Amino acid sequence: MKKAIILQILIALVFASAQLSFAEDKIITLKGQLSSLEIRKSQLESEKFSLVNEGDNLSYKIEDLKRQSESGLGIIGRFRLSQNLRKAQNLSEKIQNIDREIYSLNNQIEQVKSILTNEYETQINLLIQKAGKTNNVNEKKALLGKISEYQSSRNLLKRSEKQKSEPINIAKIDISEHDSPKEIREKADLIIDIANKTNARISSIDLRINKLRDELRTRKKLDEFADEISFFGERVAKGQVVSKATGDQLKEDVEIDAKTKSDNPIILTRQPETLDTSDDKTIKTSETSIKSVMKSNSLSAEYTEVPQSKLVEELKNLEKQKQELKKELTSLTNKADSFRKKADELEKTGKKAVETQNTSDKKQDSKPQGTKNKTEGKP
User: Fold this and answer.
1) I need a labelling partner for 338 at 20 to 30 A (CA). Which of 34, 104, 302, 369 fits?
2) Is 25 helix (H, G, I), strand (E, B) or coil?
């Protein structure tokens, strides 16, 4: 009879242990799914951010072309306008597709969070029941620790639900007095997740900044080249620039004139050849057209119709935004590191406390029974 009761207890313990192990595996799987979905969402948000910036830049071009159309656009102008409108339409479609995918991911994230929250609550109730039935102090401590861990994770999920429409206030994420090392690490992971999103935004802004800098640098070089062409055109118009062949002929004529002067008192001179400046207007027109063509060129077709002032303004705004995000990233990283260090310290302290308690218990158990009884018998 006793053997049968012991066997039933063992079977119940094995079943309960297997059930807890299965529940733990299910929770780990759900957390992995949630992490994958959130990473994908972060990637899409970063991609959308780049496309929106590109769309803003394209809108400048379209606005400028529309303003020009009031005074009449040529064939090239109309072609550029239609081309930019098609690009804007393509960008709009891409952004809409990303929005649809983000919407779908948000629904999946909500479903997984709901399942995970329910799983936490189910396991918390089961563990509370189990803790109430056991008389083993160590087992009860372990169960209570697990309950606390699941409660903390569930509360974090519920908190994120409330804050989903608002940016997470990092200042409010702090270590409470009763947080376990695992709970503190979970908070650190949440901060790191925000830091990764911030870093993705910085990378996207960096790409944009580099493009704008290259464009402005190229425009500066083209402006300098256009000025050189202009200066050369002006000198040609004044007859100050001659070819090498003309220069050689002039040198030869000067030598002949010098010889003639010595042989004959009559001085014969030959006027240096100059370029016919009757087409001065044509030269100047050509020079102006070259200059305008040079200045309209750019490194990227993306910026061709965008005024330089707009590019400089956008560059300043992006650099300011980047600096603010870098400060935020540093703050997030430092906070996550401090949380992890605190978790490690608590874990070490907890281990030392357990080891001290075990040593004390062993010493107490190793005392002779007679000595123990005498000690207990003392008033």
Assistant:
1) 34
2) helix
- Are 223 and 87 contained in the same domain? no
Mention every residue, 6+ apart, whose C-beta is less than 8 A from residue 49.
Answer: 201, 204
Average pLDDT along the chain: 71
User: Do residues 191 and 336 touch, judged by C-beta distance below 8 A?
Assistant: yes
* Residue-level pLDDT at 243: 46
How many folded domains does the chain comprise? 2
Instruction: Specify if 249 maps to a domain.
Output: no
Of 66 and 281, which is predicted with more confidence?
Answer: 66
Asked whether residue 188 falls in the same domain as residue 154, the answer is: no
- List Cβ neighbours of 369 (8 Å cut-off, separation of 6 or more): none
DSSP codes, 86-107: HHHHHHHHHHHHHHHHHHHHHH
Q: What is the pTM of this model?
A: 0.42
Give the range of the structural domain holding residue 89, as residue numbers without chain letter. Answer: 1-164
Burial status of residue 195 (CB atoms within 10 A of its CB: 0-12, 13-18, 19 or more): buried
The predicted pLDDT at position 266 comes to 44
